Amino acid sequence: MQDAPAPLIDPFARAIRYLRVSVTDRCDFRCVYCMSENMTFLPKKELLTLEELDRLCTSFIRLGVEKLRITGGEPLVRRDIMTFFQGMKRHLDSGALKELTVTTNGSQLEKFAGPLFDAGVRRINVSLDTLDADKFAAITRWGRLSQVLRGIAAAREAGLRVKINTVALKGFNEDELFRLAEWCAENEMDLTFIEVMPMGDIGNEDRLGQFWSLKDLRAELEGRYALTDLAERSGGPARYVRIEATGQKIGFITPLSHNFCESCNRVRITCTGEIYTCLGQEGHSDLRAPLRASEDPAVLEDAIRKAIGLKPKGHDFDYSRQTVDGRVSRHMSHTGG
Length: 337
Ligand code: SAM
Ligand code: SF4
Fold this sequence. Notes:
binds iron/sulfur cluster, 13-stranded mixed sheet, 13 strands, alpha/beta
């Protein structure tokens, strides 16, 4: 048997335990804050194959990653993606991987909730910004609310714990704050709000809804419910409160905040195999070349260690300055949200 390799520790003594992997840049929705209506997607040969994804994740797990989140684009529209999930099950079975999760728009869950559960997935995040069918059609451009609601029901029936992720948009879902919270409570789902980030050139100057600060959103919740701050942190940008009356947990993700950098335990991989070691910085390294250069895991693991060696301390500067107009130049669907 091979000796366990030294774990991945970055230059600031943080162990890397959490990997987020985007498996496709494609999607069956065109959410206005995420994509333009006429997206040009990457040629297939640019994407990591399912076999390359397996080798990559397997190497990270060997190096100490315990939590793997699969995202996109819409991960469940990638052809044969269940083969990849089924492959990852061996790492759950061995105990090396503690959690395999997915972030999805929910459109394919009716079909895939059961197979995901069978592959060892126990919790999923479903993105849903409104419970109003017309508003849903407007914000996703191509989505249908009823399909997503059926998907969520299928997920719960299959035994998956569901967390709803809602992008907070002033003038769009402000009026649904309590309705969303109550609907989630009734269905035993946690709810997390995400502050909207101005993304690359997606041609939606007339975007539906505007920036709604989570500080204001939280204050509104506090006007109705007694909230208790929870100490729990996941090494990422989420903070949580509990609604005392119901015990429901509500999360707040402010992607631009940097008050979690000290405990940051995560890295992201794009669907083309670039590794971003900091959400707030543009620096990245290529893992596709080493993956394609050799079947030898040692070559890949060497490249992974080099990339982790470049993980910056944090993004404690105003990174909106990185582009002249204050936008982050990469799309969420590329780095995986
Ligand atoms: N398609 C899947 C989904 O929608 O859940 C996974 C990928 S999506 C890029 C991941 C998350 O990023 C979603 O919760 C989505 O709402 C969020 N997101 C996309 N664009 C965003 C933006 N400009 N600001 C904040 N969150 C955004
Ligand atoms: Fe697709 Fe998710 Fe982006 Fe919406 S947020 S367009 S569902 S990738």
